[in-house]
Structure formats: C-alpha cells, structure tokens
Amino acid sequence: MQLNSLNIANFKNIADARLEFSPKINCFLGNNGMGKSNLLDAIYYLSFCKSFSGMPDSALIRRGAEFMTLRGLYDRKGIAEELSAGMMPGKRKSFKRKGKEYERLSSHIGSFPLVIIAPADQELITGTGEERRRFMDVVISQTDPVYLDHLIRYNRALQQRNKMLRDHIVDAGLYMAVELPMARSAEYITRTRLRWVDELTAIFSGIYAGIAADGETPALSLRSHLAQEPGNLMALFDETRRHDEIVGHTSVGSHRDDIELQLNEMPVRRVASQGQCKSYTIALRLAQYEFQRRATNMKPLLLLDDIFDKLDATRVERLINIVSESRFGQIFITDTNREHLDSLVAGAAAGHRTWLVADGTFTPTDNTDEKS
To answer: What is the DSSP letter of 16?
Structure first.
C-alpha cells in the first residue's frame, strides 16, 4: 500500500499543502516546531480517524481557521482509493472513503495499515500500563476486527459497572447483566493478547538484535489476572466485589493487563540506558510493522519521526540498514539532521523525495529524485 498524494488545509500549523510522494522514501527536514510531525499526524489521522498526539479534534483546526480538511489518494492492493476528512468548530467531523461517509469509524481501522515511531514511544517504557495496553490494542485491532468489537463491548460494560459501584448499587442481578458480557469479551481479549505477545516476541527479538549490541537479550510477557484462566473473570468479580464497592471501581479484568518489558531478565525502565530504551521502542514498532505486514498481506505505511536522537553512530547505521530493506514499503521520515537522511536515501534502491519544512510550508529540495 502507498499514499500517492496528500492535500491539507488548516491542519494544526499547516495552512495549505499539496504534496506528491515517492513510493519509497519521503524525507522532511527542518527545525523543531516547523510542522514536520504535523504532516505525519495528518497521514496518521487518515488511517486512524484521530491524532497520534492525543489532541482532541477541535484542537487540530489551525488557529483562526473555520474548517480543516485532509484528502489522501492511495494505491491499496493495486486499487486507487481516496480518503477524506473534514471538520468545523463545534460540528461532527466527516470521514469518507471513495466519497462515502462511514457509518461507524471503527470499521475503518486496519483498512489502511500504518506504523509510526515517535519520541512519545518512550512512554511505552516509562509510562503506565495504560500506554502499553493501548499499544497492544492499536496493533491487534488493525488486524482483528472481532478483537476490536470485543474491546469496545468490554469497555462499554466496564463503564457501566464502575458507575454502578459509584452509585452503590447492590442488586446482584444488575451486576450479572453487566458482568456476563464483560467476561465473554475478556476471554477473547485475553486469549488474543497472549497469542499476540508470543508472535510479537519472536519478531521483536530478531529486530532488536539487529539494532543493539551483542549480549543484550530482550523479552516480552503479558501480565494479566486472566493469563492462567482466560475464562475466570466471573469468579474474580465475586472475589473482589466487596473491595470494588469500597474503592468505587473495577479492580480486576482486561483493563488491568500490562506488558512486562525486560532486558537481560531485568525491567527495561530500571537497567537500560537512553540509547537502549530508544533501540527497544524502535524494535517494538518495527516488530509491529512486520506483524501487520504478515497479517494483512500489505506493507503498512511507516512513519519515522525524529528516530535517530539518543542513538550512537553504530545503532544509527544498523537502523538505517534495517529500514532500507525491501520488506519495508513507503517511508515518511522527519529529522533535523541532514546527514541522517542522506545516509538513509543513499542506501535505498528506490527513489526518494525531500522537502524543507518551515512554518508549515513544504519546499521540495533541488536534489529530489524525480524518477520516484
């Protein structure tokens, strides 16, 4: 899959941009705060119907503008596709595929697979379990719509149960009506997460070895109340009912799962240097890419936002060699260092295009490869 062109109007600090992309490498060079990451966010938005920064839709409209629009032309499995998004302050956003409005935005997720590697990935190591659950859910949901449906059902029922606890509801029948669908969905979610962690670990270990120094052994595992018995949630609800009534929220279930990230049998956050942490998160994302490529039989778009920071020269060289491999499709990469980008495009067999970015404006450079 590839993105052929993108038109942007009033997205963050980008007032107007019309770009045609190389099918292989697209480089965006400029100082921080100029709009490089905002361009990647616009591409991300068309795949996920939301910003990767977590900003609400209302904050994505350029200050002082009355609307925002995005329009991307894709080649997906050899078929031309158009995606468009638009919104106005105070109104519901519009999201269309081939000119037709989606009835449920969740049905779009996974149709245009994308992986982004960004500085915020550090939160996968230093952040809470919520960050790592979100990582799991985003990856699995793009390849398994049944999982996404169960996740939506579970979270909806979880909100209902928490409200009942806060309202001091004591009717066992009402709890049963909410907990049974939670348990059914939790069983599917847990089994899928366990299988996914095993598959991702096999991919991740090889990629990390290709980036990092010898003697560094990473490991991933799922920590879950249901890891041993995925169908045991109803029994856990009974055991914790009194505690949950006191604290006013649900203390067990799929929403408490976490991924344990280890390096040489120790938690990464405790023993890893900045370079090792950066290598770890990059390898996780590249493993995500390979997992999605195999699951969808498409090469996802790969967005690399300032990925060379905090890496030593050896790790930079190894990373450049990895992303230059033919298994990766179309790449969009930002950096403030021209040397890194030049090294990347020099190792690529296909063409490339480069833009200088300043104040939300994108200017093609003279050395853009027109053959791309």
So the answer is: E
CA max distance for the chain: 72
Write 319-325 long-range contacts (CB < 8 A, 24+).
Answer: 319/211, 319/282, 320/344, 320/347, 321/210, 321/347, 322/207, 322/210, 322/211, 322/286, 323/286, 324/348, 324/349
User: CA of 206: how far to CAs of 297, 321, 325, in Å?
Assistant: 20, 14, 14
* Beta strand 114-117 pairing with 68-76: unpaired
Sign of CA dihedral 42, 356, 115, 274: negative
Q: Rounded to whole angstroms, how far apart are CA atoms 335 and 309?
A: 9
d(CA 338, CA 82): 32
Q: Distance between CA atoms of 110 and 301, rounded to whole angstroms?
A: 12
In DSSP terms, 285 is beta-bridged to none
8-state DSSP, 348: -
- Report pLDDT digits (tens) over 88-143: 988 889 999 999 998 888 889 889 999 999 989 999 999 999 999 999 998 999 88
Map tokens 């344990």 to a residue.
260
CA distance 208 to 279: 7
Q: Calculate the alpha carbon distances from 296 to 47, 60, 72, 254, 350 in Å.
A: 14, 30, 20, 25, 23
The DSSP symbol for 227 reads S
Structure tokens at 281: 């998160």
How much is the pTM?
0.88
